Amino acid sequence: MKKPIYVINGPNLNRLGKREPAIYGKATLADVEQYCRDEAGDFAIEFRQSNSEAEIIGWIHEAIDEGSGIIINPAAFTFTSIAILDALKMFEGPIIELHISNIHKREAYYHHSYVSKVATAVIAGLGPEGYRTATASISKLLQQRASARAELTAQAQSGRCRTWQPAIRTRDVQQCFYVVCGGAVPFVMSANGMVRPCSCPASN
Ligand code: CA2
Asked: Considering 108, 142, 176, which residue would you say is the last residue of a domain?
């Protein structure tokens, strides 16, 4: 069974639709949750909101163990929380950072995001509809990644590649998961599911 996509929302977003509609739109958080479910295809959605940094970190830990992808609107924690950044660094799947408003058009203190350092993609300024875009995009990324993994498995099993090399699992090294070594052509698979030839020392 497919692992769920976690959609994690930070402080004050429980009030969505109740004030500042010019910036945040008229949709409520319940509407936004429905947008995500509409676009999720085969994936289950774990939709969460909290005003507590500790609770959000707990949910990221849960996603590390049980989730396939994370969509996160960290709200004000975007600009303050190295603890959320550190938790997200441990997640190996795709991460989409989402903001309803275009944070770069706003006051300077909204311009620097810690979360962007580990995000696969950032969506800002599409309004509540951005949740649809984020869910559709992360589903596609996850499907591409699954196809690439299946292709590599088939190549390995067909004998073209003699060994599977466990990947360098940090995000710093272009988000590699597996390097297939020893075959005619070594490959690298990235988090967005693209497969490309690589030069792998272990294949020489
Ligand atoms: O645009 C976004 O989604 C934000 O992440 C929302 C955060 C803000 O700190 C970020 O800069 C951008 C704040 C959310 C405020 O919550 C509201 C809830 C209901 C109505 C208006 C605001």
From this structure: 142
Same domain, 154 and 135: no
pTM of the model: 0.81
> Mind listing the pLDDT tens digit for each residue in 25-50?
899 999 999 999 999 999 999 999 99
**135 and 160, same domain (yes or no):** no
Are residues 23 and 111 both part of a single domain?
yes
73 CB near ligand 1 (under 6 Å): yes
Query: Does the pLDDT of residue 20 top 70, yes or no?
Result: yes
Across residues 46-70, what is the average pLDDT? 98
Distance 75 CA to ligand 1 centre (A): 5
Ligand 1 atom with the smallest distance to the CA of 101 is 1
Neighbouring CB atoms inside 10 A of 150's CB total 10
* Rounded Cα–Cα distance for residues 87 and 90 (Å): 6
